[in-house]
Amino acid sequence: MAIFPFILLKNKDYKGDAQIINHERIHLRQQLELLILPFYILYFFNYFFNLIKYKNHYLAYRKIIFEQEAYDNENDLNYLKSGSWFRWLSYFKWTI
Known about the structure:
Elements: E1 2-3, E2 6-7, H1 18-33, H2 37-54, H3 57-62, H4 65-73, H5 79-82
Antiparallel strand pairs: 1-2
């Protein structure tokens, strides 16, 4: 879990997992892009909207626009250097 400016890990073995660390660093950048507090507001609003839409916790979580960007790019360890800022906006869909 990323809570700016920290990455909190359930297990200290995850500290050496480049994929997990990259995923959480993507969230740190998203938080910076939105000046931190608005990120959390949008994150939770998106989750609750998805929960109503999909009626499934796991699917609602995976459909959060910030999670989609992080999961799609967690294996690209150069993503934060090469990826454009505010790319999570491309995951936003206006459909219900």
